[in-house]
Amino acid sequence: MKTLPNIIGVLAVLLFLGWLGLQIKPKPFSVHPEKTPELKTIPLPAGLPAPVERFYKTVYGEKIPVIETVVIKGRATIAPFGVKLPARFLFVHNAGKDYRHYFEATWFGMPIMKVNERYLDGKSLFELPVGKPIVDDASTNQAANLAVWAEAAWFPSIWITDPRVHWEAVDDKTALLFVPYGNQEENFLMRFNPETGLLDSMEAMRFRDSGPQAKKILWITRNIGGKR
Question: 166-169 and 134-135: which strand pairing?
């Protein structure tokens, strides 16, 4: 019985250390060595649905930048196993075509889990910490292609500078965004905030799982205000 308090004490210390390690944020990835070049611009196209035109005037004005490649770095919280882990990420986009994703979940600021994803030339690769990589699966290819266009919310000029993309009006707060997928098209329902003019959310039918039995579910990405 004398050993029970010792065991409880050790467990308490281990739990505290586990909790403490999750409170420490990782250092950001190094600054990208190349500076943003002077971007070409095009005039805001005529004939856009009303909420779409308002959105672009709010974000860019009358001149729309032509963006070809993007590097996005940041820190986040991820919960792959139901436990919130501090993380850092690096995304590289060949705008409207390809991407690479790299995530590191950390403990005491040190990587404990790494995830590699990519979508190149219409083929996806998902390398997870457990299990076999998922390579060029039809369902994950569709999901990855939608991610190409959803993540363009960070650089939304691509939605009007890419000639393969087009818009259709719905009402004064929503519009349909059509994007290419191979020889076909996918679409997002885009919801705009009537007060700010900014994008509130994007909705699409997207595969969540891989394999021939996978089914599409409603996928929603939201623009949520918060700390920088």
Answer: unpaired
| Distance of alpha carbon 105 from alpha carbon 77, whole angstroms | 8
Q: What is the CA radius of gyration of the chain?
A: 21
Per-residue model confidence (pLDDT) at position 21: 81
d(CA 36, CA 21): 35
Token representation of residue 108: 């005491």
Residues 66 and 40 sit within 8 Å (Cβ to Cβ): yes
- Using the 8-state DSSP alphabet, how is residue 121 labeled? T
Spatial separation of the C-alpha atoms in residues 82 and 51, rounded to whole Å: 38
The Cα diameter of the chain in Å comes to 80
Q: What is the pLDDT of residues 96-150, one digit of tens each?
A: 999 999 999 999 989 998 989 999 999 999 887 777 889 999 999 999 999 999 9
What is the value of pTM for the model shown? 0.87
Q: Tell me the C-alpha distance between 126 and 33, whole Å.
A: 27
- Separation CA 195–CA 192 (nearest Å): 9
CA distance 128 to 70: 24
pLDDT in tens, 149-179: 999 999 999 999 999 999 999 999 999 999 9
